[in-house]
Amino acid sequence: MDRVAKLASQKAVVIFSKSSCCMCHAIKRLFYEQGVSPAIYELDEDARGKEMEWALVRLGCNPPVPAVFIGGKFVGSANTIMTLQLNGSLKNLLKNAGAIWL
């Protein structure tokens, strides 16, 4: 849990992902298209990935990936991020976290 919190606070946007997950790919693409350069941690490529995956589940992320943190705070998974994008509030979150300037 501590490792997830530490990694999540190191950059304005942090995504915990799995390289084989299509929804993870879609969420990463969404952020790249917004001009955001997120820190991405591929749990299936990390020696402690399973441990981090359980920590994400304990935080309430179900399914555990993609898990998106903005400004060090857990925002949600794919469904939440897409909802924020569609209702226009994702851009404000990104601006407030310093992930984008415009």
Automatic annotation (TrEMBL):
Highest taxon in the source lineage: Eukaryota
Domain Glutaredoxin: 13-75
Keyword Chloroplast: no
Alphabetized Pfam families for the sequence: Glutaredoxin
Subcellular location as annotated: Cytoplasm
Keyword list, A-Z: Cytoplasm, Redox-active center
Main location: cytoplasm
Matching SUPFAM superfamilies: Thioredoxin-like
Matches recorded under InterPro entries: GlrX-like_pln_2 (IPR011905), Glutaredoxin (IPR002109), Glutaredoxin_subgr (IPR014025), Thioredoxin-like_sf (IPR036249)
GO biological-process terms attached to the record: negative regulation of transcription by RNA polymerase II
Keyword Zinc-finger tagged: no
GO CC terms, sorted: cytoplasm
Record NCBIfam families: GlrX-like_plant (TIGR02189)
PANTHER family per record: GLUTAREDOXIN
Family: Belongs to the glutaredoxin family. CC-type subfamily.
Name assigned to this protein: Glutaredoxin family protein
Naturally occurring in which organism (per UniProt): Theobroma cacao
Lineage summary: Eukaryota, Viridiplantae, Streptophyta, Embryophyta, Tracheophyta
